[in-house]
Write the structure tokens for this entry.
Amino acid sequence: MEFSEETRKKFKQTLLRDPQKEAALLPTLYLAQKEFGHLSPEVIQYVAELMEIPPPRVYGVATFYTIFNKEPVGKYHIQVCNNISCSLRGAEQLVEHLKEKLKIKVGETTPDNKFSLSTVECLGFCDGSPAMQINDDYHSDLTQGKIDKILKKLK
Ligand code: FES
């Protein structure tokens, strides 16, 4: 297991930008997730060795942040905010809608590996709640109709 040449270049840029290892850990884990899809124990070990940081420290950071996937996810990872603003504006009903539409529960992936569904803490879009993130894209002011349109474009 190794970073591709392109990711290695990005990693070196990260180290130039954040010469302190601890500061470079988050962007490096992000690069690792992009490269390998999720942060398996093997990926965490690889990052720990690469950065010369104890594996338990890397594991602790990887498991603290919900942006990091510890399990494989589908092509589209749908993360619905279930924090207070979004909850007050109907996030739970939207999650139920997504569960029904995708025929999966929260924490599951569709059998074709296309969609994974998660609930997460605040995405920072409280003024546009309810909000969700799909891979690197954010969607706000959601309704069931808006979700249906978004999903249709992803199929
Ligand atoms: S509470 Fe949902 S984006 Fe902040």
In short: The beta strands are 76-81, 115-120, 132-134, 137-139. The two ends are 31 Å apart (CA to CA). The chain has two domains: 5-64, 76-154. The chain has seven helices and four strands.
